[in-house]
Amino acid sequence: MSNYSSNSEDYTWDKIEKYQKENKIDPNTNVQQQTEISQNRKTLKKWLNNQFRIKMTDGRTLIGLFVCTDAAANIILGMTSEYTEGGGEERLLGLVMIPGRYIVSIEVDETHIKDDDDPEGERETTPTQEPIETNIV
């Protein structure tokens, strides 16, 4: 009987390790950290193809559609326009990659984001632009 439980436990651990690898879960993180990561990923998915306003360290502001990000806080925007501090003309850039180290602040236009609690979009929303906290040093 002990052989059976040993094999069963090995099988269970193999399944857990396989799940962790497939879902890129670090076995050293606790459940609270994993839940937080999952919530952050949901938020990022919710923001895909929504307008971002990014202020950079050199004073420029880039406005474009959020395409993706990575662990280094680099951001890719599509259909991007550039504005300078001096109020110069808008400059169309298209697809841009913004290194995270040059980002001062990010604002998200959440007027067109689908709400999981309101899939039909029946709830009236008011336009908001919430600054995103950036922990970039």
From TrEMBL:
Protein family: Belongs to the snRNP Sm proteins family.
Instruction: State the PROSITE patterns in the record.
Output: SM (PS52002)
Give me the ranges of the annotated region Disordered: 110-137
Q: Which CDD domains match?
A: LSMD1 (cd06168)
Name of protein: Putative u1 snrnp component
Q: Which SMART domains match?
A: Sm (SM00651)
Query: Any idea which GO molecular function terms this record carries?
Result: RNA binding
Q: What Gene3D superfamilies does the entry give? A: 2.30.30.100
One Pfam family recorded for the sequence? LSM
Q: Which GO terms describe its cellular component?
A: NatC complex
Species of origin reads Corethrella appendiculata
UniProt lists compositionally biased (Polar residues) regions at 126-137
Q: Where is the Sm domain?
A: 39-112
